[in-house]
Amino acid sequence: MKKIALMLIGALAIMAMPALCLAENEWTVIVYMVNDDKDTTLENANFRNLNNMKSWGPGENKTLLVQLDGMSTGSSDEQKLNYKGGSRLRVEKDKLIDEGVLGETNMGSPQTLWDCLKWAHDKYPAKHYALIINSHGSGVFTWWGDGSVSSSEPGKVVFNPDRRPGRFVAYDHTDHDALTIFEVAEVLKAFNNRYKTDGKFDVVGFDACMPAGAEVLYQLRDACDYMVGSPETTPINGFNYDAMAKLMARNSTIKPDAFAIDMAERLNNSQIGAWKTAQAAQVVFAVNQLAMELLNAMNETGKSFALRGQAAFGKGTNYWDLVKVGEAFYRENSDLNGASNRSVIKQMGKELVDAIAGARVTRNGIISITWPEKADYQKYRAFYKALDMSRDAKWDEVLDRRELGIK
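Structure (tokenized):
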């Protein structure tokens, strides 16, 4: 009887253990696909991406999930799944499993992103998590929705993780909304506080245009461990989802840095990189040291600086290669060479280049810094001032001085 009683106690103890202890994935990877409601170009590309992922499946002890925003008029693939509005899918080898039709969904809302991550955790808890946001992008500036450049409160985040479910990236044309970098960071930090007892969200990849900026990396420093993204506009097909699924299927364990590196380097694009957010503070510290010296030099000489050999990204001139900026000062290719702190500026340029190299975990990869022309900076200044980097470094004051003449 005593033996039977002990066996019963043991069985009850096992039944009482949290589900997380019994069935925890090595990885749960979430692809947050925000299609363009204006035409089918992005949606068709993502149907190809879905087919590439299911050609491999996620492999053992891993889950590959997709939240897909379909055309509002509806569409379907060869499995006749319903893609009218939002859908949730689980990718397995040679098939997609329907995890629920959501109907019209505002993918540009932080609440929608939170609900997606909560669903992924509650149903498929894991040791490691990766989030890929597949969408249109516009760099650190966001044009639509709460907290955007056109908002009366730039940087505002309207988000409650305890609300029951009913732009920077993720432009949703139906709802005219997008996720700001503020919203992405706050959702991830809420996820960490609630579900990640052993650290931060592992990897965030932006399959979108121009997210790889120093301001973005710094905003995410407490939200995730690794960021993957390009400083430039990206092709419509986006990331190499076939290679990502292959990596998952063929490896029983994958370290977060290896996952981020593989995601970036499989694109054969020297501009895209994987970045360690733990080094973001060193990058911003170097930016700040350089900025303070530039302010001193401009005030002393009465001159602004103009740099040679620079590279801008996108159709405009908002984002510039930060390494080239640092190198220009290190090589004294500016109009401030007559300043008394000339040698210090040179040294600060070198330290900035070194800090960027320390943050990059891929062999290649470019990170940008925001440096708009006067008219654009006037329009976007309030938003830029709301960023953590503007709070903790004086690059925004350099822009104030150089572009607007504000001392």
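The longest helix spans residues 280-301. The two ends are 85 Å apart (CA to CA).
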